[in-house]
User: Fold TIM barrel protein from Svornostia abyssi.
Amino acid sequence: MNVAMVASPSVRSVLASHHPVGASTGCFTSLRGDWPGLVTAAHEVSSYAAELAALQAREFEGLLAFLELEPTLPFNDLSVHAPTKGLRGPDHLRTLLERLPLGIETIVVHPDTLGDGDELAALGSRLIVENMDGRKAFGQTADDLADVFARLPDAGFCFDIAHAWSIDPTMALAGELIDRFASRLREVHLSSLSADGRHIGLTDEHAALFAPLLRRCVDVPWILEAPVSQS
Assistant:
């Protein structure tokens, strides 16, 4: 990743300390729906890792159509963020995710979209479950995620550090999530959050606060969920 584009020395230091850093296509709102353009934009941030994010079910259909063309995806590590809106239940989500090419080995899902059953269990280790912020009714705590992993025993963990901070600014919850699910950790979502819960670029304050826990998240991609500040 070209960390020289990051204005703050604190943020630059955190990102420079970790090789597998990439961007979510959700950073590039002006290109929404333009999948070739989104891939190019993510590649300009990092040639190593990227996350293709399509949070609306209708938008996800567009992503599936793009992937059916078998495009060149120039990343060592690639994930897809499953839709969280416009779904007609867990069976609809399963139907969409089963259409992803087998080459997509990492699929980020939200716990509140999964229902109470094991509809997605057949996707096995391709699934990684993300911890939630306070806007969701479920999925924030380690016990919540333990319930999900009991139903999806092969699934991995996507650690959204800003979500954990929003629930517990002392970072005790964040530490508990890493303590309990370190063996499942496959991806980190990295950003700060605005007062209304939107992902924003990592701030100096959060760069310093998050750094001790991020040092425990080695050898997995850190995915930026908001544009870094420009110098």
Notes: The CA atoms of residues 132 and 140 lie 5 Å apart. The radius of gyration is 17 Å. Strands lie at 21-24, 49-53, 77-81, 107-109, 127-130, 156-160, 185-190, 192-193, 199-200, 222-224. The mean pLDDT is 93.
